[in-house]
Amino acid sequence: MKIQSYCKSYDVSICSALKISEFTEGENYLVIADKAVYAAYKDTVFHGIADDRLILFDAVEENKTIESALGICKRMAEISFKRSDTIISVGGGIVQDVSGFSANIYNRGVKWIFVPTTLLAQCDSCIGGKTSLNFLSYKNILGTFYAPDQICIYMEFIKTLSAHDYLSGLGEVAKFNIMAAHDGLGLLEQCIDKLLSRDTEALLFFLERSLSFKKKFIEQDEFDKNVRNLLNFAHTFGHAFESVSHYAVPHGQAVSLGLIIANIISSNRGILDNQLRSRIEKLCVQLISVPLNREWFDQEKIVTSMKKDKKRRSDKLTAVLFKTDLTLEIVHDIEPNEVGSALDEIYQLLVSSDKI
Ligand SMILES: NC(=O)c1ccc[n+]([C@@H]2O[C@H](COP(=O)([O-])OP(=O)(O)OC[C@H]3O[C@@H](n4cnc5c(N)ncnc54)[C@H](O)[C@@H]3O)[C@@H](O)[C@H]2O)c1
Ligand SMILES: [Zn+2]
Fold this sequence. Notes:
Layout: E1 2-4, E2 9-14, E3 29-34, H1 35-41, E4 54-57, H2 66-78, E5 86-91, H3 93-105, E6 111-116, H4 119-125, E7 130-135, E8 138-145, E9 150-153, H5 163-179, H6 184-196, H7 200-220, H8 235-244, H9 251-268, H10 274-285, H11 299-306, E10 317-322, E11 328-334, H12 336-352
Parallel strand pairs: 2-9, 3-4, 3-5, 5-6, 6-9
Antiparallel strand pairs: 1-2, 7-8, 10-11
The structure holds nicotinamide-adenine-dinucleotide and zinc ion.
Nicotinamide-adenine-dinucleotide (NAD) binds at residues 34, 36-37, 40, 59, 61, 64, 91-97, 117-118, 120-121, 124-125, 128, 130-132, 140, 157, 160-161, 165, 168, 251.
């Protein structure tokens, strides 16, 4: 798949075998690898990578900072990096965000290859060219647009993901395929058992559909000024769950919770029929594995967090809602008490599904 970005077009390929050393021949390079991924694939995928060309990164939100990005830049300076030299990032969204930011600011941009290792990064974040860092108490508040030159997806990485991280990626897969209409929901329902058991063929099918769907939005509106905003579906509520749980709920699982909340509000407004709502709920609750806490479903806490949303225009709340005709709409008039009722409803749903 080719993605057209404002300054270049880049390739996303599915690799049946992977050796990072193949990206390094004849060039100065630096590999930024997720520490856990390196430990699991040291003798295979990373075989032949010199220690002095390797930075191991501890992929936790607390490290997604400007200091980490500058640390990578410092290392680039020490080995006299030029614009034509290559950063190779191997990891999930955290490694992508920090190393992509560094690749962008050093020398106003160096060559960058990204090898996503989580399902979330493979099916979603690897394309679209956003790099984000956390700053003060704000998540993703610093950032740039900078696309990799090449993305290589190697499905084997999925096998070592924890259940929480795997389901997090599956939440994004579900979101894209539901949004994509054309019976994306029906296909997910048919294949959910295969997806839950990490069946590679099923995963690849939905992963390619997810990327193709996202491609249309990012090519049309790379800088997130209009239609790309629709990809925020489930995210305003999702970000609030991440924030109130202090990131105990991983991103994609928070998106699944956010998707259910958005649909409850749509159905309470009469724009989403109940049958569709319950089909989506039934699917999405299966994608929640982290222990949940009653306090995270508090109206005041969630609304306070939603008020920090970058896309909010007025005192009321903004979100993307899904409709019975399978279209999406951005609304800017959500009242806090609508969110409160939806929180009560999702809480009951999660209790009756043994998730709380
Ligand atoms: N730039 C973007 O467009 C974009 C989009 C969505 C999310 N994000 C960001 O991505 C981050 C979340 O990323 P994520 O969910 O991909 O994961 P992550 O980078 O947070 O990693 C999650 C965990 O999985 C481990 N891990 C990664 N790959 C593994 C593998 N193959 N086997 C075993 N363990 C592995 C990591 O060490 C870590 O413990 C958030 O910070 C979010 O803000 C960025
Ligand atoms: Zn997301």
